[in-house]
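Section 3.1 - Work completed
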Amino acid sequence: MASNKKYWKSVEELNENSSIVETLRNNEFVEQIPVDEFLGDKDSLASGSTSRRDFLKYVGFSTAAASLAACEGPVVKSIPYVVQPEEIIPGVADYYATTIADGFDFANILIKSREGRPIKVENNNLEGSRTGANARVHASVLSLYDSLRLKKSKISGKEAEWSEVNAKVKASLEDAKATGGQVVVLTNTMASPSTDALITNLQAQYPTVKHVVYDAVSESNALDAFESVYGVRGLAGYDFSKADVIVSIGADILGDWQGGGYDAGYAKGRIPKNGKMSKHIQIEANMSLAGANADKRIPLTVAQQKQALVKIYNVVTGAAVGTSTIEKYDAEVMKAAQQLKAAAGKGVLVTGLDDVDAQLLVLAINTALSSEAFNPSATKLTRKGNAKAVAQLVTDMNAGSVHTLIMSGVNPVYTLANSKQFVDGLKKVKLSVAFSMKEDETASLTTIAAAAPHYLESWGDVMMERGHYSVMQPTIRPLFDTKQLQEAILSWTETATSYYDYLKAFAASNINGKSWNQVVHDGFSVSEVSSLSAGAIDASTSASKLAQAKSAGLDLVLYTKTGMGDGQQANNPWLQEFPDPITRASWDNYLTVSKKDAEKLGLENWNVANGGLNGSYATLKVGNTTLSKVPVIIQPGQAVGTVGLAFGYGKTAGLKKEMQVGVNAYTLYTNLNSNQSVTVTKEEGEHEFACVQLQKTLMGRGDIIKETTLEIFNTKDAADWNIVPVVSLDHKETPAKEVDLWTAFDRSIGHHFNLSIDLNACTGCGACVIACHAENNVPVVGKSEVRRSRDMHWLRIDRYYSSQDTFDQDVVVKNNAKGLSDSISTLTAMEDPAENPQVAFQPVMCQHCNHAPCETVCPVAATSHGKEGQNHMAYNRCVGTRYCANNCPYKVRRFNWFLYNKNSEFDYHMNDDLGRMVINPDVNVRSRGVMEKCSMCIQMTQATKLKAKREGRLVKDGEFQTACSAACTSGAMVFGDVNDKESQVAKLAEDDRMYHLLEHIGTKPNVFYHVKVRNVK
């Protein structure tokens, strides 16, 4: 019997005439949900081309992700805004222009912020910006959330208030003034005009104050040379896009040479246009990024490099300074000199030799060439360290003549070779202060450890080059009780103003008529500068000195790795796990040795049963300093008679245990000179490396990286140098593009995303790898897991060496092999790289195949294809069979072996609340047991479409981006919609140089590459 009972939700329902009752019957909510605030107005939505279903999928994705996350873990109480800032719209990212200036890396950047949290670095692409964010700059946002940061200042090891700190420093300054004691402000290169003005004000009040600039990795010799000629302590500016011939002697122009940032200009000249491209000749000892990208690489010792520089000087200027013959490579050096001279104004020479005479000779040669790429008036001001002044400071400290020492942005106890002398001198200083983000080696020994903010919590200004004024603005309130050095100086000089007000007033004379708000919005302002007039250069004397150079034993060439730099971000797990572009090893620094020298010294590398790379240990001795237990990697291309070792490792203070890796190369950095004479001896034991690529050579597989020469490119048809692979169809050779196992779909409607990668423009820098980490919440797994080939990088940059002198010769050798036995022996021999190989880089991520082999084997349809060309992963469907990884010919899928989030076994940023603040809320944090890989940043493409829909317009070309394409400053990666025939990516898809990776297997990828062209004539 049915029940006749009636139920109601409220007493109001008993009133039949109530308007509320009728509303509730038709709508769940009495008030309409204000979706227009984030979706745009109804007219814009109605006129858009995105379907209702597409929209629901987009909203459903983020909602489902949030719901799933809420179900998986315990409820975490959230604290709502008391007053929500007007500029923050939940779910919508804000971007703020700022500048990084940490003393080593300088760049105009944008910071992506979500709900008040900075989560990602982007390039500032406004015209005139000094951008080019490298891997370290992209990773710097994670350093903001370092759980080991100094949270409060300390006096003699005990926490103290800022009032106590300032009072103690003020009293010491007054005492020094009264007694005539020396006060030294020791800083890194801040390149900050307002800070220089503040220090000048401090000197006016306390006359014994002296400012010493110390760069951990010094360019002091180059600065001394430039200053002696042009009267400004800076470095010449270079624009490699204006050069037809580039000759570099020991300068990694695609790495950290003189502050870096040259890859964008370099790449412009490297892409063949109208039958032309620049020619790059690299003369060096260590294999560098620049050497790996050069058309011709000549490996020489340091003494031989100096001889080569004199030979080039003789050819260009007509001088006749006597030089020694360079064994084996003399003719090639002379050929390079002739090509440079023939290029005249379109030629440029640079050097990284740590020698004043070498730097003077370069200035003279570029002046003689009237090089268009050489611009001393655009003086770089991002390196100002003075090695002589630093040495004098250590002497003065030990003599007891330094009363007060105030340090900011430096860690000399770690970075000085004569660290013990500095520590001894520190004990004789009456008051020592270290402004530091960490309680590092130096801050732990000073009287006062002053807690300093991260650059994303700071105001500031930066003059990266003459006439280019940049502003640094905070993108988050200070997380801890920190203060900037500038605020402290204002307090010590009793200036009644904040640093912000001081900076705003100071900037008025530097911003070229712009308003303050406009400069903060843009991040920089550019003004015209007067030309610098050159003084006389005694080049012949410098050349004569260099011609006397001789090697005394092995040359040690100290350098900075692309990932770690000078080591100040050593507690950043993204950078520790970042594979070095050359060696492909992470979590280590090591001695790089040539194969010949390794055989003489008994040093070895070998692979073990689990696929890991092991190696010998060596002991290094420079003068009276010994460095033990240095791991060894045998490096193809290392000049015989030289070894290399990277700075930035071997730190212990202020680091998690997992990040305390490597050896401290600064201990061998005598007199801040990167070129040292060293004795190397083998040491007992074996070292375990975490190397992500053990396959070194291509073994003649020209279908992976296609190459040609500029001469062939210009004189033959594309069919000759971009060979279309063929397969057998009905026993006939048929172009692979015309054969298909699957039914094709019409993909011409809507968006269809493609990614273009130009192998001529890709320098292998790896900025894209870290950008992908940040955007997609890629976990850090640690050295042990990387060694097991369980790294989680969604994007890898394969690096290949040639087995013969060139890749073309490799193909010839492979093709000449006859029969099974000969083929096996030939291919086995081709696993061994040449002594001085050609090098090629190739970024590889999920190729988003239109006919994807992974999709056909997934038993639960966890991986499937979207109509816009992206290969999707539904994590909650994946059961971890790994069939897809086995069936992927590109090996780009990563199996998530463990739970990396909130797991003490993986004590990196995802294991603490502070570190998790960097997580992008638009992307799931994956759990164990699922397969993950590149998503072609679907969250970014969806957000771009939604933004255009809100504004009632079509998406413009260049708006669609992935994390990797947005990070690529060289222009190698271009992403977009190929259905938009006017888009750049659509035009690149029709280029003669375009090819697909492993095209013969018929997967029809949505990622394509461009044939690498070398200018080898």
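Second construct:
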Amino acid sequence: MTTTTTTPSRAGTVARGLLRGQNALLLGVLALIAITVTAVNPNFLKLNNVVSIFQQVSVLGILTMAMALALISGGIDLSIGMIMALSGVVVSTLISAGQPVWLAVLVGILAATLCGLVNGVIISLTKTMPLIITLGMSGVYFGIALVISGGQFMGFDGAFDFIGRTRIAGVFPATLIFLFVVVALMYVLLNHTRFGRRVVAIGGNEDNAYLSGIRVNRYKTVVYMIGGALAGVASIVLVSRLDSIVATVGTGYELSALTAAVIGGVTFEGGRGTVGGAFIGVILMGVISNAMTVLSVNSYVQTAVTGGIIVVAVILSNVGKMRRT
């Protein structure tokens, strides 16, 4: 008699990961919100509105992947919003100077990656708290963006209309491709590469990781470089929608990305969290924002609700620590 064993498919493994623990709770909350809002306004779950939600969170989703990576490594990056703004300003400046779009995009993303490199080197060499360094560098990048742009709006003259206005199958915006590709790449990076495993190890216990032979400084620097590059990609998605950029455009994105990541189960402690969970956190943020708009909730109330979500996210992040004390 022969016995056969079946190996679970990769898709099945991903699905089970999404249905575990906090992710299952978040999906339940999403379903509850969707059912409740749809009962009041049947347009909420129509395809056009669902696509609109994903389009609205496309920039936030990419930045959240950068934030999640930094958190999992045991750090944090509060400069990603301003890196995104600076990258967009660089791209606009080059296009206005008559440079090809592809070259402007390449230089903009390289500039964003360089910002991440600077963050990573300072954090790694000085052993200073990433929160303080990235907060300070956020001001530096904001100042550079202001100097370059003169504090004025900078246009793109439709240079990115081929991204912003393109619809796949006449329904799905091309910007969603950027979001889904980034999420997929980050999933593979953290779950199926040596780099990802070592980043998790560093976040879990940096001293043990160093003693086991992992080049901690190098990996931490690369983490912030990847975060910078993702901020550069986010800037392209943003300008393809707005067709303009201003130095202040990145304000608040870092906190929204942090909130989405933490809601999705990525903790401040490092070494814990998943790409899938962070992505669900992004969707939840988008659904809540869209639901309040559909229900015509006062903008002041929306601000208060957003603040409440941040508090809840921090509490959820510390549940494990509270249980251990």
